[in-house]
Amino acid sequence: MKLIRAGNSPLLEPAGRQWESRAVFNPGVFKWQEKIHLLYRAQGEDEVSRLGLVRMRTPTEVEEKKPEPVFSPDPDSEYESLGVEDPRVTQIGEEYFMTYVAASKYPPLIRKPPHPREEDWRVRVSLAKTNDFASWSRYGVIISHIDSKDACLFPEKIDENFCLLHRVIPHIRIAISDEGGRRYKERGPVFGPREGMWDGERVGVGSPPLKCPFGWILFYHGVDEKKVYRLGIALLDMEDPSLVIARTTEPVLEPEESWEKTGRINNVVFTCGAIEDGEKYWVYYGGADTAIGAAMISKDEVCAWAKEELAKSKYHEFIQVGWATTEETEERRKRGS
């Protein structure tokens, strides 16, 4: 099971405008006004990340690209002094929620985190909401106590709660909120690295989860000991997404093209967004932290894999999230039959 690239060249590359002259990458994707849109991260000579907006004519053809950023760092936020990064967009009802990373450096007098980061980098999961992608309601940092990123919201409430996936190295974790905004309560790890495999060093959320008849489809990234970023798929339980039903043994996308292998960060394919369009899932991704590509996979192929894995899921529950009861396991098996 592999993603098929839309072509050998990037969909978007850095442009002459100052704010996006060095890199465009890691786009979120969503449908708005019946069109696919990309909300992408851009960097110019000042190295500050801002977000740009593209409207697509088709999944692989750009129709319009906004000349100026649609979302920039809040000058009053100490957490956004180095930019706003890696947007992931989820539509819930008529509103669009964007999770993003607020980037800054730790002030000299604040104790640094136990896991080292280059140049004292501080990253915090943040949230904003919009109806038109021109004006925003900014909630700011929503997980303030720890370095965390790669966050996304599920597209519907589960047990009356908003559910958030995010990454604290090296695991993907889940948090919930009954408010939908400012306060999220940690509920622990969902899954982590697999030793000796393509995702053996760390894992992180890719796109917001996509609902299929057999569970939640999560495109995610994994990193190996050589720091190569690849993409895979996880299947999460429909009613309790902290339960992992399956993960792909092999990556579904890995750096192969020259612009994926060489750039600002070499050997990277990194997604913040996937979307259902007709009979395909389209995945938009950053290549080498420099340019943007698109790849697709048949929904039937992914759903067939999900159905097969769900049918046999009683044989491989994951210890890190606890053992399901016989009744719960049997219900998941029936949904896959």
Strand content: over 45%
What is the helix fraction of residues, given as a range?
under 10%
Tell me the series of helices and strands, N- to C-terminal. Answer: EEEEEEEEEEEEEEEEEEHEEEHH
**How many H/I helical runs?**
3
**What characterizes the major β-sheet?**
5 strands, antiparallel
Q: Quick check: average pLDDT?
A: 90
In the CATH hierarchy, what is the class?
A: Mainly Beta
Number of domains: 1
Rg result: 19 Å
Quote the distance from N terminus to C terminus: 21 Å
The CATH architecture category equals: 5 Propeller
Uncertain stretches of 5 or more adjacent residues? 315-326
Q: What is the CATH topology descriptor?
A: Tachylectin-2, Chain A
> How many runs of DSSP E, i.e. beta strands?
21
The CATH superfamily is known as Glycosyl hydrolase domain, family 43
Shape annotation: globular
Return the structural class: mainly beta
